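QUALITY CONTROL LOG
STEP: pairwise intake check
CHECKER ROLE: data steward
CRITERIA: each record must contain a sequence immediately followed by its structure tokens, with no blank fields

ENTRY 1 OF 2
RESULT FIELD BELOW
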Amino acid sequence: MTRAPLGDADSARYLDETVSSWAQQWHASALLGIEHQPLPDDRGHFHWLIRLRGEEKDVITLWLSLRQRTVHVETEVTPAPEENRETLYHYLLVKNAELRELHLAIGPEDGIYLMSQIPIGEVTIERLDEVVGATLTYVEEIYPTAMAMGLSSLYRRRRKPS
């Protein structure tokens, strides 16, 4: 069995140009930086790291990975829950049904992640803007509740100044 070809250098250049163009239009106050891994990893995937400033969660980091035919997008919402797992997972499954463009999943080391797959041919500045904007919104919405449920002994919600 042969594997389909991985995203090539042309796809990587296209995605890099799209991410760069998107970054020029993004809200300067929220964008902390973008890093790009110019060479593929051992699986042939190219990677971009987008760091955003959050309010509830200080830094929200999105990984974009150019895979065979898609761009995989993921961000860790919370680390693995230590308490109230059943209650937290119930909350996350209910919340998952409300999400658009992204879905919640258990990721590496049992952390809670938001993920998406975008076909490489559908990656545009507008689509990237939708995914990044949705990620920022959803993390800010889900993070405090998930942390309070799953890591309540470690987490104290920030109080917004009145």
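ENTRY 2 OF 2
RESULT FIELD BELOW
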Amino acid sequence: MSKRDDLIAKYAADLKDKVGVTPDMDLLTKVVIGCGPSIYNADAETVAASDPDELGRVRQNYLVKKLGLAEGPELDAAIKAVIDQYGSANRNKYRAVFYYLLCLHFKKQSVYA
């Protein structure tokens, strides 16, 4: 297996074990590919959920630019909902899993079609 395949398996396990969601492997794979090289960097692979600047980048770069959503308070509410869903106690919130959950939240799977 390639390193990316190993990471996809790790993210799928995270979704099952920590979030209780059975992932759509095709969508998860596309989200992982969309994350680009950031998944191979230990620091960039995770989302710092307690850092307002990091959450602002998720909002701007992923929700607005990638998913094409309009700026508004519902974006922050969705990010908070995903943090709660992922579990505040989970220290490592993987970027690909975080983006996958946001994609499902906004029903924007078509972006990855």
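INTAKE CHECK: passed for both entries
DESCRIPTIVE NOTE, ENTRY 2: The mean pLDDT is 95.
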